[in-house]
Amino acid sequence: MYLALARKYRPQKFADLIGQASISKTLQNAIAMNKVYPALIFSGMKGVGKTSSARILAKALNCEKGPAIEPCNQCQTCAEITEDNSADYMEIDGASNNGVNEVRSLRETVKYKPLKNRFRIVVIDEVHMLSNAAWNALLKTIEEPPEHTIFIMATTDFHKIPATIVSRCQHFEFKRIPFEVIKQVLKDICQKEAIKISDYALYLIAKSAEGSLRDAKKILDQAIAISSGDVKDDDVVTILGIIAEETFIILTRHVFSQNRKGIIEQINQLIERGTDLRFFYTEYLRFIRDVIVIKSIPDAERLHNLNPENIAEIKEIVKGASEVELLRFFNAVKELDQTIRNTEHPSIILEYMFLKLSYFSALVSIEDYLKKIRDPKTIAAPAAAPLPARPPESPPAKDGDGDWITVMKARIEKEKPRMASVLSSSSLVVRDNTLVIEVGANFEIAGKMLKENKPYLHELAQALANREIGLEIILQPRKPDADENRIVQDLKSDKKIKSLKDKIKGNVIAVESVKGGKDA
Fold first, then answer.
1. For a Cys staple, 197 with which of 231, 234, 365, 459, CB 3.0–4.6 Å?
2. Mean pLDDT of the chain
């Protein structure tokens, strides 16, 4: 019968434990000083060595050459515990033996001395599954266990263990095993088993295990079986159900080269292959994150999830983009997260997303555009060629004056929004090499604002026109009739308006009529 890799390469001594050096050292010191706590809690995620550590501890305490900090794994006692044939070593599944009757039966069993060994070791796996009544029945036994009995409780959910139990136990928290360690362990196993496997396949398996060495060994077992020996990258991708990195690379190349036909064809291929497009979106977001890492951080081998063989190609694709542009790229993808999760047509959203990204390389940032505007040598109308050089002698009005006036309005809108609103209702025209700003009648305050900012407007106009030019601000004359004057005076003397003026300590500056509406 085939022996699974997880069992074949299970740690048999403390030195074999992977990623739990501090726990191994603490337990070995306790054995050496004869101070092993009678009730222990081993907590941590699945597949990190909790029950393996319990077996090693049981062998070290009961070894015929011990107690020793390492079991010999040669004597009959060690062999029996390894093979799970020892009467004094008990492994109980807490999920299926979680009732009070099972705990009472256990209490009766541990009253008696071990049949053969120095200690009876009771391991309760998934102990957090015990019922409240079972916990209450176990409480006194854990607090005052028989001298020859040691309880080891293993759990993947430490927070579900009652505080009264935790306070009576010594707690060891097993850490998630680092990705690099898992990868090296798998590589060593493949060498011992004479299995050929690429670093990329090992990388994929180690990453997918998410810190569980047992899961990694299980996936490797499956990969060996499906490949009939030597492991192929495509088989690992199939087993894990991940998206091939080449797909992301092809789409990214289409985006940066603005190959929109290629984008749509690639997404159609994903649909034809039955790819989960929502999962594809999530994986592509991770891919972009990794691209940003290798672009912005030197020597980032351990910080990304990309195939090392593809790094050079990816760097070539994004060599013309800055880190800021890639962050903008990432943000544009992330903005569609909720949309793509809730839409009934993710293919349409994906097409839209990649087509939108394909236009990014042609965009100019606001900072660059403002810099261009501030530099007189680079002034140009938006989306147009630079204006031709102007001769020293300027005619009264020139072709192209409207262009720099448009740019001037845009500049003022960014720097002085209030003034821009005034200019939007005013007339700007060049006459006799002078920029004339005509402000409408009844807009005295607006005219005053423009006159106060005349130096700013004059300097800006000359810079954008790229020549010496005058500036004149004209307030159009107001021609109120007698009736209008009478109405204005009546309003200014109105008692309610006077009362409001006194309350807010204000003054009536102007009265303007509003036309329109049903009552106009």
1. 231
2. 81
Query: Could you write out the DSSP letters of every residue in 239-275?
Result: HHTPPPHHHHHHHHHHHHTT-HHHHHHHHHHHHHTT-
Instruction: Determine the Cα–Cα distance for residues 467 and 461; give it in Å rounded to an integer.
Output: 9
Backbone angles phi, psi at 435, to 5 degrees: -80, 115
Q: What is the CA radius of gyration of the chain?
A: 39
pLDDT at 474: 85
pLDDT score of 150 more than 50 = yes
Contacts of the segment 399-404: beta carbons below 8 A, 24+ positions apart: 401/430, 401/465, 404/379, 404/464, 404/465, 404/466
Give me 77's structure tokens. Answer: 């006692």
Determine the Cα–Cα distance for residues 207 and 290; give it in Å rounded to an integer. Answer: 14
Write a three-state SS string for 157-199.
Answer: CHHHCCHHHHCCCEEEECCCCCHHHHHHHHHHHHHHCCCCCCH
**CA distance between the termini of the chain:** 97
Check residue 138 and give its pLDDT: 83
Segment holding 429, helix H or strand E: strand 427-431
- Residue 59 to residue 72: CA distance in whole angstroms: 8
Looking only at the bridges linking them, the beta strands covering 39-43 and 149-155 are parallel
Distance CA 60, CA 50 (A): 15
pLDDT (average), residues 140-168: 87
Cβ(37)–Cβ(27) below 8 Å: no
Q: d(Cα 128, Cα 161) in Å, to the nearest integer?
A: 5
- H-helix or E-strand spanning residue 150: strand 149-155
Among 120, 33, 121, 31, residue whose Cα is nearest residue 70:
31
In tens, the pLDDT along 180-214 reads 889 899 999 988 888 888 888 888 888 888 888 89
CA-CA distance, 211 to 125, in Å (whole number)? 20
Q: What is the value of pTM for the model shown?
A: 0.58
Q: 17: closest CA among 175, 220, 187?
A: 175
With cut-offs at 50, 70 and 90, classify the pLDDT of residue 400: low
CA separation for the pair 160, 131 (Å, rounded): 11
Q: Which residue has the tokens 């900012």?
A: 453
Q: What are the distances in angstroms from CA 312 to CA 199, 291, 306, 307? A: 16, 11, 11, 10
Rounded distance, CA 48 to CA 215, Å? Answer: 9
Tokens of 148: 């020859």
Mean pLDDT of 222-239: 82
What tokens does 73 get?
A: 């794994």
**pLDDT (average), residues 103-123:** 82
State pLDDT tens for residues 349-386.
Answer: 888 888 888 888 766 666 666 666 666 554 444 444 44
pLDDT at 485 over 70: no
